[in-house]
Write a structure and sequence with these properties.
By secondary structure, the protein is mostly helical. It has 5 helices and no strands. Helix content is about 90%, strand content about 0%. It is elongated, with a radius of gyration of 20 Å.
Length: about 140
């Protein structure tokens, strides 16, 4: 159905993002450990688990969750830039990796879901054409 290696890579990417990147990012910004990772665990554990499951319904649910996360992070980032103006602070930029990761999960999930639906539509159309040919014979 879906390519298992893509799901495995996205699962690994989400785990890397949560445990390695967010700890590093949080240390660079705040000089603390684990705060960014805890926020990342709350936000991205459902997506990571659903990439691990890898079924079409799991991908559809993960895509919906990622769309919600993407919109929330877009609001955080836009408000930070709006309030900061030309003096954008590090705190305004803090949410950008979360925003990007939610966008990646959303875009790949939408791509997989649309590809599967397109293939199903083509298969149904082909089956209908074959039925029409048999009925005409």
């Amino acid at each position: 159905m879906m390519e298992r290696s893509l799901e495995k890579k996205l699962f690994q990417l989400n785990l890397f993002f949560i445990f390695i990147f967010l700890n590093t990012w949080d240390y660079v910004i705040n000089r603390t450990f684990f705060n960014g990772m805890l926020i990342g665990l709350v936000m991205f554990t459902p997506s990571t688990f659903l990439w691990f499951v890898g079924k079409l319904r799991a991908v559809a649910l993960m895509t919906l969750i990622s769309i919600f996360e993407f919109i929330i992070m877009l609001i955080f980032v836009a408000e930070g830039f709006q309030l900061g103006g030309a003096a954008i602070t590090i705190k305004s930029v803090y949410w950008i990796p979360y925003f990007v990761m939610a966008g990646v999960n959303m875009a790949v999930g939408l791509k997989i879901y649309s590809d599967v639906k397109e293939r199903a539509l083509k298969a149904k159309k082909k089956a209908n054409q074959e039925d029409n040919i048999q009925a005409a014979s």
